[in-house]
Structure formats: C-alpha cells, structure tokens
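Exam revision sheet. Question 4 asks you to relate a sequence to its structure. Input first:
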Amino acid sequence: MTVSFAQIKESSPMVFDPGCSTRVVLDHIMSKWGVLVLSSLSDGTRRWGELRREVGGISEKMLASTLRTLAEDGLVRRESFPSVPPHVEYSLTPLGRDLMERMLPLVEWVAENSDGMLGRAS
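Answer key, structure tokens:
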C-alpha cells in the first residue's frame, strides 16, 4: 500500500510541523550516523568495537551519542554484562527491527544509485 505525503498530513494535520516530535525522530533516524549504526545493528547484536569498525569514520564521542539517542528513542537495546573488562552489547529492539525492515530498501537504493547521482562510474 502506497501512501502519499499529503495523505499522511491529512490524517494528522500537525505532523511534520515545526516543533512536532516527528521532526526530532526523523533527525535521529535519518542522520548519517543514525542510519549507519541502525544498519549495522540490523545484521545482529554488536559490541562497541564491532560497531566502531563497521561504521567507519565515526568518533567515539559520536558513536556514544548516537547509541544513547537511539536507545532513548526505543530503537536500540543496550545490555551490560558484569565482567572485567566491561562487556556491553547493542541490538535492535522490536521497534528498531520494524524500522529497519522499512529503511533497508532505502539504504539499498542509496548504495545502488549514489555513484550515478554524483557522476561517478559504478
């Protein structure tokens, strides 16, 4: 079922207006780091170091901030295990998995079309 933006706005007139929570959520999940962290976690549970390697170029500070935000939004689960050294694992929540079922086709589209859009040979 395809829904237009106008239909979404008609069903919830204030949606996506300034100050609406939808804009905050879009910012969290559609930021460069948000998309890459969520995409990495769509393949399964990851530890900090694994995420850092898979999301190349992200600083420790930005990874921590992104994971904290996504966890607060209910998309990522952080599980800490009492051990030495500390062992923390990150995974998608059911809400996060639902999101990624919808977002991965977009990520795939970007992977297939980005070079052509930027005038680079594929």
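Marking note for examiners. Helices lie at 5-11, 21-30, 32-41, 48-54, 60-72, 94-117.
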